[in-house]
Amino acid sequence: MLNVALIGFGLSGRYLQAPFFETNPNFNLKTIVSNSQNPKEYFPNVNVAKSLDEVLADDSIDLVSICSPNSTHFEYAKKTLLAGKNVLVEKPFTATIEEAEELIALGKETGKLLTIFQNRRFDSDFMTVKKIIDDGLLGEILNFEAHFNRFKPVLNPKKWKETVSPANGILYDLGAHIIDQAIVLFGSPQSVWGQSFTQREGSEIEDAFDIRLDYGKLKVTLRSSLLVREDSPRYIIHGTKGSFVKYGIDVQEDHLKAGLQPNDAGFGVEPSSQVGILNADMNGLGIRGTVETLTGNWSLLFQNLHDVIVDGKELIIKPEEVLEQIKIIEKVRA
């Protein structure tokens, strides 16, 4: 059993991570760092600390998950690695290529696990898309389009999220997820074009983007906005054998906010209204029908942390892959 400390108790720490550490018998959620909330109200058995330094002074802590504001990720991850502890960093990994490269080198030097919380690799919709592509149902992929939209016209009450800083803005928030998904599916692009811009009244940060990744014959489009009330398809994929279109988004975050636990029946199961449409040629026949969405399973990410640290298995979310994400973000911002 690995002793875990969470640094921060906002959305990620409280809802997206703590329940998985609590319900997985391979982990003991020992400490949570929070200066504004009382984690014991939700997790009675945890210790509450006031700083990262308190956590690093505890020799029993095996894994530190950094869920603090974006601007702290590089500094906190570096201190944690230097203290000889394994590190999970909430996205964005870092603000710059140089910071990411420094952490990757330090992880190798210390021999400690360093990975990033790219949990949406294990979304129900993305896992379904990946399986359809991997199984060759669409043939050679020619066009891939992904949208990650919200309708949030009112500025975020968390002031740090609306403050101009090197690691803030929608590219580092929602963009970090769908850029990562494109890299998982297709690798690094030959070229990048994109722009990020501001749409909400009074906003100081970028809150929308439009990115094109060129892979030669394959063209990838990634879009996001916080002012989309009637959503478009989340994924649109066209290949030489057919097309796949998927509306709706993974429900794990909503389930966690509603109080469901990762080991509860029905957790991560999308409603039937969100099934995707497949229109393809199969064995000489044209077939059009629905595809049942796979169950979302962020638990896979957490189990992999244990398996890497304890059993030396292969890391699923490699920091080198996320470095490619930061390179794309920097090209778009430039």
TrEMBL record:
Coiled-coil stretches noted in the UniProt entry, renumbered to this chain: none
Annotated ranges, domain Gfo/Idh/MocA-like oxidoreductase C-terminal: 130-331
Keywords assigned by UniProt, alphabetized: Oxidoreductase
A Pfam family the protein falls into: GFO_IDH_MocA
GO MF annotation terms: nucleotide binding; oxidoreductase activity
Classification via InterPro entries: Gfo/Idh/MocA-like_OxRdtase_C, Gfo/Idh/MocA-like_OxRdtase_N, Gfo/Idh/MocA_oxidoreduct, NAD(P)-bd_dom_sf
Gfo/Idh/MocA-like oxidoreductase N-terminal domain ranges (all copies): 2-116
Protein family according to the UniProt entry: Belongs to the Gfo/Idh/MocA family.
Name of the protein in question: Putative dehydrogenase
Organism expressing this protein natively: Arcicella aurantiaca
Biological classification of the source: Bacteria, Pseudomonadati, Bacteroidota, Cytophagia, Cytophagales
